[in-house]
């Protein structure tokens, strides 16, 4: 698996790394069950910070493109090809947009919506979730 990262690009490094791993999965360069390098090894190979690679791996695992099996390592998820096309950020944005539209249709002002959103987020964080 060849990974190319452009440190001068505007796109964040972790995002580039995610895209490269997804590209390798999509092209068949790596397949379900294939092992990926450890965070430390990949960071060293690409001359990146460990935290950058860890963030990319964390987001790829959240999206079920990869799976970490403790000390055994990190592997391509069995359903990686199907899962890599789902963009959680797009989905969240769409859901929030629908809610905002519904609130505006009922007459809520942007200020009321912002206050309600902030209160909901603060209560969630205060509850430790």
Automatic annotation (TrEMBL):
Superkingdom of source: Bacteria
Entry annotated with the keyword DNA-binding: yes
- Its name, as the record gives it, is GntR family transcriptional regulator
- The HTH gntR-type domain extends over 11-79
Q: Record's SMART domains?
A: HTH_GNTR (SM00345)
Keyword annotations for this protein, in alphabetical order, are:
DNA-binding, Transcription, Transcription regulation
Transmembrane parts of this sequence: none
| Keyword match Calcium | no
């Amino acid at each position: 698996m060849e990974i190319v990262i452009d440190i001068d690009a505007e796109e964040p490094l972790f995002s580039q790394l995610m895209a490269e791993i997804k590209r390798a999965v999509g092209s068949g360069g790596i397949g379900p069950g294939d092992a990926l390098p450890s965070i430390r090894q990949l960071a060293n190979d690409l001359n990146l910070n460990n935290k950058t690679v860890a963030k990319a791996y964390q987001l790829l695992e959240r999206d079920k493109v990869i799976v970490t099996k403790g000390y055994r390592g990190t592997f391509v998820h069995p359903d990686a090809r199907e899962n890599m096309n789902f963009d959680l950020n797009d989905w969240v944005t769409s859901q929030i947009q629908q809610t905002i539209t519904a609130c505006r249709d009922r007459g809520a002002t942007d200020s009321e919506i912002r206050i309600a959103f902030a209160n909901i987020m603060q209560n969630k964080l205060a509850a430790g979730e």
